[in-house]
Amino acid sequence: MAYNRLQTMRDNIEAIRVALRLGVEKRPPNADEREVLGRYAGFGGLKCILQDANELADAAKWSKSDIELFAPTVELRRLIHDYSKDDREFAAYMDSLKSSVLTAFYTPEPIVDALASSLRERGVKIKRFLEPSAGQGAFIDSFLKNENYPGAETLAFEKDLLTGKILSALHPSISTEIEGFERIDSDFEGYFDVAASNIPFGDFAVADPRYSTSKEIAYRQSTKAIHNYFFLKALDSVHEGGIVAFITSQGVMNAASPFVRMELMRRSDLVGAFRLPNNTFSDNAGTDTGSDLIILQKHTGKKAMSADEEFFIQSIVDRDTKAPTNKYFAAYPQNIICTEAKIGTDPYGKPAMIYKHEGGIYGIARDLRDALEDSLRLRLNLELYNNHGIKPPTPDPVKPTPAPKSKAAKVAETPLMTQYREMKKRHPDAILMFRVGDFYEMMGEDAVKASEILKITLTRRRNGKAGSIELAGFPHHALDTYLPKLVRAGQRVAICEQLEDPKQKQKEEYKPTEIITPSPTVEPKPAHASVEPPTPEVKPQQQEIETDGGPDYTDNPDPRLFAYNLFGELEPLEKPKRQPRQPKTEEDKPKPTAKIQISDEQVKKFRPLSEKELEFYGSLNWEDNPPINGFYETMMSIAHRQMAEMEAERQAAEATKKEIITENGTVIEKTEGYFIPQPRGAKAAKPAPIERDMSPRKFSEDIQYFHQNGSMVVDKGQVGFLSEVRKNGATFTPLPIKPEQEKRAMLYITLSETYQQLYHYEAETHEASAELRQHLNDYYNEFVEKYGNLNEKQNAKFILMDANGRDALALERGENGHFVKADIFDHPVAFAVDEVTSVDTPMEALSASLNKYGEVNLEYMGSLVDMEQDAMIDSLAGHIFYNPLVANYEIADRFIAGNVVQKAEEVRAWIDREEERIKDFPGYDGVEPFIDLSKESLKALEEATPRRITFDELDFNFGERWIPTGIYSAYMSNLYGTEVKIVYAPSMDEYSVEAQHKNMKIWEEYCVRGHYRTYDGMNLLKHALHNTVPEIKKCIGQDENGHDIKVPDAEAIQLANSKIDEIRNGFTDWLEAQSPEFKEQLVDMYNRKFNCFVRPHYDGSHQTFPDLNMKMLSDRYGINSIYSSQKDCIWMLKQNGGGICDFEVGCGKTLIMCIAAHEMKRLGLAHKPMIIGLKANVADIAMTYQAAYPNARILFADAKSFEAKNRVNFFNQIKNNDYDCVIMSHDQFGKIPQSPEIQQEILQAELDSVEENLEVVKQQGKDVSRGMLKGLIKRKENLTAKLETLQYQMEQNKDSIVDFRQMGIDHIFVDESHQFKNLMFNTRHDRVAGLGNSEGSQRALNLLYAIRTIQERNGKDLGATFLSGTTISNSLTELYLLFKYLRPKELERQDVRCFDAWAAIFAKKTTDYEFNVTNNIVAKERFRYFIKVPELAAFYNEITDYKTAEDVGVDRPAKNEILHNIPPTPQQEEFIQKLMEFAKSGDATILGREPLSETEEKAKMLIATDYARKMALDMRMISPAYEDDPNNKASHCAKMIAEYYHKYDAQRGTQFVFSDLGTFKPGEWNVYSEIKRKLIEDYSIPAHEIRFIQECKTERSRKAVIQAMNDGDVRVLFGSTSMLGTGVNAQKRAVCIHHLDTPWRPSDLTQRDGRAIRAGNEIAKLYADNKVDVIIYAVEKSLDSYKFNLLHCKATFIAQLKSGALGARTIDEGSMDEKNGMNFSEYMAILSGNTDLLDKAKLEKRIAALESERKSFNKGRGDSEFKLQTITHDIANNEAAIERMKADWERYDKVVQRDNEGNPINNLTIDTCNLSDEKNMGIHLQGLAQRTDTHGLYQRIGEVYGFPISIISERVLADGVEKVQNRFVVEGNYKYKYNNGQLAMADTHAACMNFVNALEKIPGIIAQYEERTAKLKADVPILEGIMAKTWGKENELKQLKSELAALDRKIAAELAPKHDEKDGEEVKPDTQQQQPGNVIEPPPSSQSQSTDDKKSMVAEPKEIYRPPIVPNRTSFRPFGT
């Protein structure tokens, strides 16, 4: 059945409908639904879905042939849209479907069944099946039917989202992955039995890093072509012996590149390849395309390839038809499944064979099954499959059974076998090698013997209908390898060269057969048989495709066939020549007879041959290089005759001139050259051929720096490639190439290596090498003379085979259609060589001197300018100053710049020292003139010194890195009342703190106790130094696993923050209390470090710009002169070597960039500058440069330059040529490889820093958090891994590609530099809002690498110029990133090594605490305030030239801002209430969407802010269910556009409309299209005059629209900030700008306005009072106005910072950003529409935070009060105990008796015995200790000196057994024990002395109590001080509450109903509005609201009044009035 597109489309739509419905209902399909799903056929033949089908108007764009599919396509889009969750999912579905159009051609079921059944019948059992491109599952259905392989495990991949759903529904039991095959888990490698599929085809790249970085070229290439990738990936996925059966395009086997096929054959056995006819997919997919079925069996341990596999690798091209094919199908035509073959074209219009099968799909399947049966039977190794390769099969020797000699057998055999058997009869005792094509083959018993001896694969070949026969073979070029092995094994070998196709022979004639017989002693030499007569010429016959019989082999194939040789060139297929083993004598040689005779008359009529033709055809001869066919023989004859005539003429001329005698036509004179022609009849002795070793071997030469894997080299006279390149050696693999090719290759290699040596030498030494350059020119000239230009097609192909080939090709560049030499042939390009010899003015001489010597060299300057030295110095007065510190003059811009304070002090010291030295010896050494000069210089320095900042003006941050840690230690020691040591580790930007003696201030006053951890004063001190807050957690319960549920403890965090603030804020107060000397010293340190920078006044008026072509600039751009501001900026850039050009839009940055780059080049200040700009601008930059300097050599990178195939060549062009400037886009610059050395250096520095940090951390011990230590270790591991990867890449890619460092770029001009602001930085402030992404972007990192490369080369800062009108786009934190790019050394001098160190000096972090909707306190941190702003601005301005349009005097229109207020529509009013409810509750279903996810919960306010923005723009942005409203923003905007359109209709005035929301998207509703519709329908504006910038898909279309705007053909242009805000110069007729929304950053607003407010706006200047109206549309009760005001404030202070016009030293940035949205309180207040409510919300937030802080303070004071009570009680108890113990001691001391040494005498008496001797008493006491049990009561046993002694028994557990343990005490006022009351059981004396010893301890106990009491008493004043403290913000809280009460009253009054009065009488209200008896109550006061925290957030008056009716009209007022 023919393919029906409409029916297929309908079937697909129904299948998709069912699949989507099943997904929603979450159920499997029923039988009917399965049938519907099964009819899904994909969209491979339905390209209609690629077209627009959004509305009826789109039908006009469709062709007539597709129009029937328009309605179904619309239905399809609507169906998918209805089932999509959101627009993003819909877009994903459609994109996925569109991508599948190119690859989704589903295989007919009979074809798949033929494959599956054939494998099954051969015994293949499948347990694990892989389908990598499953579609709807045809292969799964056929292979895994339940009756075939029950329970088989299946994994299927399908990339298309909708097809994947259908596949999952049809096959619920299998594992389905809806993603690309490249995402398969690595665990599945070697897992599957069979992989079968119809795989996608095309040059689609596959993202598989493992393959793309593989050493194997096949794997790398496979990632660029998806079909190749599937084969290799599938082989990885099947086990050893596993089967891969893929249907794929013919391109796999026909492709010219053999590498992938070689890799396939290396890792697998070829089971079979089958070419399917072009009508295979006609009925099923509507496409006639050729395809192949390829079956492989994984076999990684194979030893050699079979003949079939060798054929499979080779692709060939028919000479006549130019149609590509594969040699395998030439050998096996029966594997081409067809009944008809003809020449045609492929889908790309290239020649191709078209195969058809008249039997249809079932006939194709039948023939395919037959072909499969033969191939599987012969080549499928079931043992390998079943054993998974564990036991590789060894075939048993096959004993061939002689075929019966019958006529039937002879008839059934193929002609080839008939010919073979006849030759075998002649040599029955020899192994017969039969030459078949490029192989020597052996059959039958010979094949069995040879396979055993040679260890080659034994297979079988079909022999017509006679069955099959054993076959073994090897490539012809391996003959010299295998032949000796057979001979050594004792075999006699016969070699037969088959010359003719047996089917075309008229009589049997054979090439002589060589017989090689083994010798018993030496290796045999071949003996030759008799010579047969030559075969007569046979006329070619038409070939027919046979359906039976064997392959058609021939030794002399069809001369029309071509193959690719190793040089990538097409060559005729010919018989490769085997190296003869023994030269024949002249008599033995056969004398070939020319088959074609050329008469002299014919030769004379033929045209003279060219030199190349003569050289090629003249090299042919009958002896060793015979012609391959009649054409070559004819050309050989003509060439020889013409060469002989030329030689005769030359000899005659030489003889006449030199009188040199000739003999027999041969000149008796030595001739040099590759070819010496000889007369035809001359006989030359043929040199004996030399056998060459073609096996891989060790490279004998030294490895050079440019050698790498794939380098083409010469080794011992042979050309080959290097592999396994290492420092100490490499493997050399020779190339089997012809002599002429070898000569060309050798000359090329010499040329290439000479170039590498020359460039490397000059780059390293910066010295020119004339000798190497001469060699390079000589070799190049010789190569071009012999073989043509390097880049000519025949040369480029083989040169690109060399790994360094692209470098060599870049030695030529194209100019005017011809190739010319690169600059390196003439002069060095790795460094500057131009020498300035003369200039016109002293100023230019000064610039040249700075370039050459880096200083003012008067002698050199005098040689450049014709002027006396004194006169020159006088003329440079004010420009140069004498600097005694360097004993030379310095330029003013350098001398009076930088740290002038330190410089002035050093100059003053020098003057004083010299004056003191010569005081008594005036005029002694002539130093007086220099002293006078130095005084003038000192005066200039002092005059330039900035005003000194006083202590009172400074605002100090606790933790600034420049302040010595000793000051912090002194402050903290004073605050804590104990010595505190603070140490700073610069490498890790980390403070460590230590206190040897902690006290109550540390333990109590500055301590916060969390649930899990206590943060004492030392922990909080560290946080205070780092300006961070601890993350304190608390437990709110346990989860199901019993683990604590931890959440932030907001109250503890706030308490910690208040204590940290107390530490930080107290530092300033402490500094205030210090001595004046101390403060003066501190101020002096600050001024010397920060307030010392001077920005010189750069006056560039003297510059003349010699090469500048003002005429062309005037003609093309209307530029008649250079602004003085531009000259000043250029001079600054020239003097500083870079900087920042901060010019507003339209002030001429482009021309500054071009002139500065050219001037740097002209003066030698830069050798090779580069300009990078936006893609939209870069072409204009290049045109401006070319107009300004028409003769300049500019390299401009267009789109083609950076295509993958051209990119490397372009990089080499930069490297090898000396351009004046290189210009490219930002995106192109990002593709330049950066120097791996620089990357390694930066990463290594960071790693070193981390290792130092680890050491510091380990020294800190337990004070370091585990998280910090873990983080450092992880960071170290990551950096180490990066470094190892980089090192590996450096070794692997050594010199493989040109990187940025090698290009020689030494200055970069970065236009629109704010695009690179997203640079990475490290910070510990990860919770601070508004900092941006600290990870940064790769684009910015690449720029940093490039600039560091230049800075490293120059040894100083800058090295780049940033140009932008918005260098600071949003926040002052971006300043740090600018400094990180351009001023790394200066930052290091200021002790700023990271962002945190910079922020500690110039920023103040604020932490706002506010209640959220759940009554929890949320901390909001941000760097809101910036301090020391003047010094920050001075640091910025030192390298910056900032100019506004007013400063420059640009003739541009003024901006007239208009805030267009729009009342909310009823729909918006309703939605505002929903938004407020959502913000309160977090219930997203209120908004008509799904509940918030866990991730979205964290960004709830950002979501709310986003909804509010969309709501203000148009309600249909929320949901398409909303309807249009005549009063919405779109309607207002359309009305205003129409007004301006008609107002300026005569002048064709144009307008810009900006919106970043609702941008144009084809097929979707959007605001752009809606306004356009209104303009067309309501205001009759032509549609073609309204355009969207998003419609411009190419740069050409974009430029066309811009030109149409300037011409007035397009009147209204819509766009977003990113697409329309930059790079659009369409201002010529602009009269109005409309801002539908407000962007996030001030810079975006500036860029938008700059599209019309710029020079060249003619209509505004002439007809609009030189003004452009800028209308900001703001919906009331939305965020529009609030957001715009915030931007306005930010833009104001950024401009003030740049201009230095700030009046204050501190500025406030504001608090809303795009990452977090608004806070809850402000959001609710703004949506309420009452500005007083916003003030109320802010007051309530502040009051709530203060009350929470007071609560925390009171809690802390309560804890301290309890602590004080406890301590007081302990002191009283201790003092009482001390008194009692002193009484006991006094009593004891009075009665104790002591011996002469003062030791107490024992006075022990025991109540239970009358013993008196110590030994017996001791024994008795020991007995009491063992046997007594007092049951826990004290029991008296005796006394000592009147103190009773008691014993008490205690129960204890010992080894699990309860025991009684007795203790003894001496009782006084307290019970005293010695040795814890236990007696000495081994010593009776010690046992008796126990009690006296207990009494002797009383003084020690008293001392301990007294010490403890003293410590407690010391803590009492501290605690009393804490108790006496009052909360310092009580008054502030009272004031705020008072303000809140007043505001509440004001709001209540405003909300109260108004009564109109008329003539003094009260007007009665309408009865409908006010019913009698209703009482109007004021809203509750704040006190009454305090019971409900939620209500206290925002005023919520009861709706008991009717709001006044607002007239529905737009208020129109200028902003700010």
Structure description:
This protein has 2017 residues and is α/β, with parallel strands linked by helices. The chain is built from 73 helices and 63 strands. The strands form 17 sheets. Strands 3-2-1-4-5-7-6 form a 7-stranded mixed beta sheet, sandwiched between helices. Strands 14-15-13-12-16-17-18 form a 7-stranded mixed beta sheet, sandwiched between helices. A 7-stranded parallel beta sheet has the order 41-42-40-43-45-39-48. It is globular and about 145 Å long. It starts with a helix and ends with a strand. The relative contact order is 0.03.
Q: What characteristics describe this protein?
A:
single chain, 2017 residues, alpha/beta, 7-stranded mixed sheet, 43% helix, globular
User: How many strands?
Assistant: 63
CA gyration radius, whole angstroms = 48 Å
Helix proportion of residues, in percent? Answer: 40-55%
Tally of helical runs: 73
Give average pLDDT, whole number. 76
The biggest sheet, with number of strands, parallel, antiparallel or mixed sense and barrel status, is: 7 strands, mixed
In terms of DSSP E residues, the strand content is: 15-25%
Indicate the multimeric state: single chain
Described by the principal axes of the CA atoms, the overall outline is: globular
